[in-house]
Every structure is written in C-alpha cells, then in structure tokens.
Amino acid sequence: MFADRAKIFIRAGKGGDGHVSFRRELYVPAGGPDGGDGGKGGDVIFVVDEGLNTLNDFRHVRKYCAQDGEEGKKKKQHGANGSDIICKVPPGTVIKDFETGKVIMDMSNKTEPVVILTGGKGGNGNMHYATSTMQAPKYAQPGEPAKEMYVTLELKVIADVGLVGFPNVGKSTFLSRVTNAKPKIANYHFTTLNPNLGVVNIDDTGAGFVIADIPGIIEGASEGVGLGLQFLRHIERTKVLLHVVDAASVEGRDPINDVYAIMDELKKYNVEISDRPMVIAANKMDAMNEMEKETVIDLMREEFEPQGIKVFPISGVSGEGIKELLWYVHDLVKQAPDDIVEFEPEFVPTFDFDDEPFTVEVDDEDPHLFYVEGPKIEKMLGYTNLESEKGFDFFQKFLKENGIIDELKAKGIQEGDTVRMIYFEFEYYD
Description:
By secondary structure, the protein is an alpha/beta fold. Helix content is 22%, strand content 21%. It is built from ten helices and 18 strands.
C-alpha cells in the first residue's frame, strides 16, 4: 500500500539529573561537594533516504523516542549522553505540527540531517553550587525535561510535470505509453489510487522529464470530498500541469467544462498552483471521426489558447500527437525555475522549562525547623521586596506555584513551625 501521510509521536531524551555527593576520602574529613553533571538527552533527527518513496514504515511504528541522558556520578563524573534517534523519510516529505497543521520542516532539499527536537540539557551537579555561605549544598539541578510532540508527515511527490484530470480520462494509459511506469488500467472510476511516477525520455540525447500521474480529481476535492486533499498535495511541487481530458466525451462529459472544473479545484486548494504553466491533452482522438476531431479541437483551442493554454489532440491508445506534446512540455519544464518548490517553516517547537533546583529538608535535631534552599530560591529572594505587601504576595504565590508549599506539607510541616530560606526565617501558617 502506498502511504503518503502518517501521524507519529516523537520524543527527545530527557537530560540526566545532576548528582549530589560529597568527597569522602581518608585524611579528607571535610571534603567538598563532588556531584557530577547529568548527560544530555538524545536528539530526534530526520534524514532523507533516496531509496524510500512512501511513508509505509511510519504506519507500523508510530513512536520514536531518543534515549535519556544518564544521571551525573560522584567524583565529579559526567553522566553519559543519550543516543539520538534517526527517522529516515523519502524525498519530498514535509513535517508538520499535528495540532496546528503548520510546517516545521520541508525535507525536500535537505542533504544533511535535520534536528527536529533537541535532547534536554543535563543538570549541574552540586559541585557547581558551593559558595562561601553554602559550602555543602544538598541540591543539584534536575535534567531538562523531555521534549515531545505529535507530528504529521506528508509526502508531496517531486516531479516536473503533474498529470491531472477527472477519473477515467486516460491518464494512466498515457503514462504507460510515454514512460516505463506500470499503472493499473481499467474502465472504471478511481482506478488510480496512488501517484505514479515515471521518467519521460523523448530521444537518445537525454531530453526528458519526470511526470507524476495524480489520481483522478473530482469536483469538491479542495474541500476534502473523496480523497481530494490527499491527491492535491502531490501537485504542489510540480512545475507544469498537463491536463488530460476526454475530448471524445465517451462518458458524456464536456471537455471544456472539465478543464474549468479542475482549474477551479486547483485554485481553491492553492492559488499558486493554478498560476503554473498548463497544457491540455485532448485525449481519445481514436474514438472520433475526422469531422468530430476537427470540431472539438477547434472549440477547445478557441476557448483556451487565448489564455495561453495550448491544446494538443492525442490518443493514448494509438500514440497520435504524443511526440509533439512531449516536446512542448519539455520546453516548458526547461523554462521553469530549477528549484524544487519548498515550503517555508511556519512553526518552531518551543518548550519552556524552569529547571533551577531547590530542596526542602527537615533539621536533623529540630523537627519544627525546615530548610528551603537552592538557586531558584536565591534568585527569587534576590529580586523580591518582602517588606512590601505586593512583594510578599508574590513570594507566597511563588512558593505555591513551584510546589514548595506542597513539599513542606509532604515533609510534615505544622502551623507555627519555622521555615528558613537563605538569610530569612518565616513562621508557617496554613
């Protein structure tokens, strides 16, 4: 089965926690803090694999998690970094945020690996927090939490020419004649359910281009009717649109109305697509007599050629008119910009982590005395004026929102107990 869309969960590794330990050696009775730093978490990396052409693998495995960093160790030893996880995608893959649908990264022109989520930073060990007033810090910095999110992978076929048209107009027959592609061909609607890619070689000089048979588009496709949106995304990268119509009206369709209907769907989906060079292949000439051919082609040329859209009468069955059509399309491709249409990033994953450490401890000798320490506390007290009512309100809100009140309660604090923070002492009231 051809898969051109997948939803997956990605998670970078958590940073390893910093370690709390103290130097304990013979003849060193008061060794200082020697807790090492935690290791960095692994990254989530995407790379383009030219050997892939579908997103089938992501239908079977939906979670991609990098390894967490290791906790720091005693003797100032650094924890090991977590291993990265590498996701291989086919050329043309666009990575989008699942919640917003916005583009995170278009992998089309990426020859180097791209880091989508970076692993968390490792936390500092307690050796970093020794000061002249706090020579034995009992806290270390936790590692940065894991970054995780759901993303949507969309494969947008990379081809020079997009073959568009209603179902059963002969696109697959045309493709099988001009390329080595082997699409399924039958006389019923929606025979083609997968985009078929083929290489057109016009002559021995190497003249040619890549063509994609986009599955039959129906009216309402731009609103998601049928499988419309899945098909339309494959047209976005093409340089030229080759519109195949049933000029013989075998099924009673009006070829001129068909062209306008498809053009309208393209415009509703993406205005830029409708502005690209278009050629009309009036197919099934073999099903008409000479007078019918002349009448239909004259009408179509009068309608579209003043708009700059050339009409070529062809037959996918007999090969009539195909060579002339291919050379004209080849010239249009050569005139188009060489760059593959690339989608600009619209969304940058951001994660706001406050990982400054703090500890809540009960005094070893006095069960009614509690210590709250750490860089987080020092910073807060450094910019808070506790003498003002507003400052004291902020102080209490800070303790509550950061879980310090909950931690004190968990340690068994009671009304009237004393809480000591750096140089300040407070009496606790619930």
